[in-house]
């Protein structure tokens, strides 16, 4: 995606007012990719819960009555290794124009580390969109998407497809000076960039910012950045969104217009 909302010139007071009234947009207001595609992967990443590994992520698709978004996937580990399966994505909400976001999650695969096998699990998948008797695919231009999870990684652990920036994880800690920390993945679109987390611990009555710091190049033109913010000891949660400014354009990840809500203490993402 190539054109996102530019909020570089918004003043701090205007920004604070906007946060109070409406969530920041995490997706573009117009893109050439969306105009030619019914469906497109936004991002995908590895997940782990209850000694199982899985892939999950978000898809953007055209809104229509009775439409259906499915992810067809396989993996190279577990009792059903090599078997292609379908998982139906769940509608999250509108993104922009006539498009919306869907969340998907593959079935969990036993982590090989349970048996002290030092290896990971590799997933292969494509996105299917069905509407009005027609089927449309995003299969990464015929190459499918590949994602690794677990101890070792043959492929990326995070895929930024149409999304430019996305939260990796966040943790909140309650102590003498309560803090929350996390990491962010973003596409390297230029050398000079600023990555910030805009947050509030009182439901946007007041607003604060913390600047993220470059951590590493994780491959596939993707970087990881870390952040740390402070909140009063009496705070029980923090709401936040991520702003990534590069080449005069600011890209937001605000959890699809809902902002992220992190309990203190607590962690994100949350899996069942």
Question: Which keywords apply here?
Answer:
Immunoglobulin-like; 272 residues; mainly beta; 2 domains; five-stranded antiparallel β-sheet; 21 strands; six-stranded antiparallel β-sheet; disordered N terminus
Task: Give the CA-CA distance, first to last residue.
Answer: 32 Å
Shape: globular
Output the structural class.
mainly beta
* Biggest beta-sheet profile: 6 strands, antiparallel
Supply the number of helical segments: 2
What integer value in Å does the Rg equal?
Answer: 19 Å
Classified in CATH, the superfamily of the largest domain is Carbohydrate binding type-21 domain
Overall pLDDT confidence = 86
Q: Could you name the CATH class of the largest domain?
A: Mainly Beta
Number of domains: 2
Order of helices and strands: HHEEEEEEEEEEEEEEEEEEEEE
Would you report the number of β strands? 21
Q: What is the CATH topology descriptor of the largest domain?
A: Immunoglobulin-like
Q: In which range does the helix fraction lie?
A: under 10%
Relative strand content: over 45%
Contiguous low-pLDDT stretches (5 residues minimum) are 1-35
CATH architecture of the largest domain: Sandwich
